[in-house]
């Protein structure tokens, strides 16, 4: 079977759906991080979502971020340490919006493509959502280790597209 010149530039499915997730993320008005998520069953796109304030409420670009500081006890080199984390509580995460605006029946056995590795809360929600696979691009080191452990325990395929390049004009610099 011959390949046409057009096939050599055709994107694979992971790239195609991650490109869509990045384009969805451009709808976010969050000044700290634009995140997009898409729900896919086979090769069928079932839903999209991005991070932002609840509908009808001023978002962070209008009212400022609502940053809270949390402290977490973690093990670092076999030693317990207190680690400070900051997060915005005004924003609903892309994964949370995706779960709110899609049906459970559509999520059963599906794949979520998300621009960023899910935080702990989103990972917990995704673990209970019926999805079988989560594919992400950018790492989120604050929760990475425990999220990977959770996905392993749940038997959810958890893949990082480290070599992926987002489409031009779809990304933003990320504030940790």
Describe the SSE topology.
Elements lengths: L4 H5 L3 H13 L10 E6 L2 E7 L9 H4 L3 E10 L2 E10 L5 H7 L3 H4 L3 E6 L3 H8 L5 E6 L5 H11 L2 E4 L16
Parallel strand pairs: 5-6, 6-7
Antiparallel strand pairs: 1-2, 1-5, 3-4
Cofactor: Zn(2+)
InterPro entries: APOBEC/CMP_deaminase_Zn-bd, CMP_dCMP_dom, Cytidine_deaminase-like, dCMP_deaminase, dCMP_deaminase-rel, Deoxycytidylate_deaminase_dom
Family: Belongs to the cytidine and deoxycytidylate deaminase family.
Order of helices and strands: HHEEHEEHHEHEHE
Number of strand segments: 7
- Rg of Cα set: 17 Å
Order the strands across the largest sheet as they lie in space. Answer: 2-1-5-6-7
Largest sheet: 5 strands, mixed
Specify the structural class.
alpha/beta
**How would you state the average pLDDT, rounded?**
90
- Give the % helix: 25-40%
In what range is the share of β-strand residues? 25-35%
Number of helices: 7
Q: Note the gap between the termini.
A: 48 Å
Poorly predicted regions are none
Shape: globular
Pfam families: dCMP_cyt_deam_1
Protein name: Cytidine/deoxycytidylate deaminase family protein
Organism: Paenibacillus spongiae
Family: Belongs to the cytidine and deoxycytidylate deaminase family.
């Amino acid at each position: 079977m011959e390949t046409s010149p057009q096939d050599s530039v055709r994107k694979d499915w992971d790239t195609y759906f991650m490109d869509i997730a990045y384009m969805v993320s451009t709808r976010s008005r969050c000044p700290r991080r634009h995140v997009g998520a898409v729900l896919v069953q086979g090769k069928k796109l079932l839903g999209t979502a991005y991070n932002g304030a609840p509908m009808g409420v001023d978002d962070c670009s209008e009212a400022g971020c609502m940053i809270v500081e949390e402290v977490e006890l973690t093990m670092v080199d076999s030693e317990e340490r207190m680690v400070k984390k900051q997060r915005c509580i005004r924003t609903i995460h892309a994964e949370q919006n995706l779960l709110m605006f899609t049906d459970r029946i559509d999520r059963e056995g599906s794949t979520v493509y998300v621009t960023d590795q899910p935080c702990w809360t989103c990972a917990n929600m995704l673990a209970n959502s019926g999805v079988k696979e989560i594919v992400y691009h950018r790492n989120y080191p604050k929760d990475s280790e425990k999220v990977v452990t959770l996905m392993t325990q749940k038997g959810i395929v958890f893949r990082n597209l480290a070599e992926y390049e987002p489409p031009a004009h779809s990304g933003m610099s990320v504030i940790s």
